[in-house]
Amino acid sequence: GAPVxxxxxxxxxxxxxxxxxxxxxxxxxxxxxxxxxxxGGYGRGELHPASDIDLLILIAPxxxxxxxEAIEQFLTFMWDLGLEIGHSVRTVDECIENAAQDIxxxxxxxxxxxxxxxxxxxxxxxxxxxxxxxxxxxEFFSAKMEEQARRHEKYFDTAYNLEPNVKEGPGxxxxxxxxxxxxxxxxxxxxxxxxxRHQFLTQKEYEDLRDGRGFLWKVRFALHIxxxxxxxRLLFDHQTALAEMFGYEGGNGHRPVERFMKDYYRTVxxxxxxxxxxxQHFQEEILYRDKxxxxxxINRRFRIRNDFIEVTHDKIFKYYPFALLEIFLHxxxxxxxxxxxxxxxxxxxDHRYLVDEKFRNDLRCRSLFMEILRxxxxxxxxxxxxNRYGILAAYFPAFGRIVGQMQFDLFHVYxxxxxxxxxxxxxxxxxVPQYARELPFCSELIATIPKLEILYLAALLHDIAKGRGGDxxxxxxxxxxxxxxxxxxxxxxTRLVAWLVRNHxxxxxxxxxxxxxxxxxxxxxxxxxxxxxxxxxxxxxTVADIRGTNPEIWNSWKDSLLRNLYxxxxxxx
Length: 573
Description:
It is a single chain. This protein has helices at 4-26, 40-43, 64-80, 92-101, 103-110, 119-128, 137-154, 173-187, 192-197, 203-227, 236-245, 256-287, 316-319, 323-333, 342-350, 357-361, 363-373, 379-388, 391-395, 397-402, 416-430, 440-446, 452-461, 472-486, 491-502, 506-513, 519-529, 532-547, 556-572; strands spanning 34-38, 53-59, 85-91, 113-117, 295-297, 302-305, 308-311, 339-340. It is an alpha/beta fold. It has four domains: 4-128, Beta Polymerase, domain 2, CATH 3.30.460.10; 137-287, Nucleotidyltransferases  domain 2 (Four Helix Bundle (Hemerythrin (Met), subunit A), Up-down Bundle); 294-395, Hydrophobic Seed Protein, CATH 1.10.110.30; 435-573, no CATH class. The strands form two sheets. It has a four-stranded mixed beta sheet with strand order 3-2-1-4, with helices on both faces. It has a four-stranded mixed beta sheet with strand order 5-6-7-8. The longest helix has 32 residues, at 256-287.
């Protein structure tokens, strides 16, 4: 069939022809003083099968009564054709007044286009709603950022929802539109491509946004056809049906739906990262350009500008590739830093290609990664940031393979990469005094283990072999041995991490599926763990793993089962 970009544009053009013909029939014969305007998505010239067709009918002042009957006939005719018409009837002054009060209305009007009627009315509306009169760029930006934050909050601020919303969810179509709206208000750009000319987007960023939008359009278009309504949620049944419709095939331990959803999650994750970076870039380089700045040096490669870290010049990563890891260490060591400057995020993204085999074998890089894991604070936060910027996947290719990989079962609510980082977060919380009341025994126990980085590595590696086919615990054990030796761990520490990865499910399955009041069951488990050191590490990893699978499945019963097994085994050891 035709590309989805053609389908959404041609559908809008078809509706253009219908509504303008109807307009000619019911309103064009009247004297000048009315105009038919497409707004919203229809104003952009984009229509999916069940999208609303949003129309603004502009009329001259004091002429509501004069046009009422003709407008009613026009709308009735459109509804009789089976079209989902959303409409408003306003004078130019009413448009300006309403838009000044409502961010949604001004956004819709920014994307408007004249379909038929009095061009003078339309131009007056456009002029009256320009930034010089209402919603100056800084106020518009703040309102759109607040609107986006509220929207993201509904979806738990993650692109990894089990049944994601293609339009409204983080990394969805609204996030692409938000970039365009904010930039359009400032530059007056007509579309995303225009933003390359204004040097707001690089060509690569434009292509990534365009391709991501194309993928989501394809999904949304198919969803509307499949559900026969304006459904924007990728429900489980729809996921399976769309995977089949798009021709995904299974293999190597993956079902077609898992492959489709992996593509989906990777797409929205990348779009979410672009949205974050570009909106921050707009704020720093356009809104705050003339504000006074405080700059503090860190070293020859990095400095802090207004509480955000940045490179000292744009060739830093090219000259010092190890700085692609060093920046995250500085962020851990300086908790007062609020984040990374957008221009530096862009440079990190542009230099990910430097993270190659030579980079991974560089002693400085290996040392930096382990130093990041050994810091007393900020580990989870910075590993998540490394994941967002694509550095973690580049540095650790096995991790890259599980990014965006969903697990279709009754328990897992996170993708594998998100789950791994959630388990790491849970382990870290055991060490933080303010969370000691959550799981006091874990907080006491973790204070006694000799090396925290062993536990962090086990958390990072425990599910690293998911989705390869075969037993992921055994395959992960091999990865763990390679990773630990590569990073200079002693043979004992390497074997301990590998053992934890191999056996990360043993305590959970023993406690929940076997009779732990049976001495033979406890004795068999004790033989597996061998000593108190292994038991302590495994207990902490098991609790963090279960709590990182699904927030709903941890309860006092599971807590009690694991504690009882721990105590019975410790008594034997």
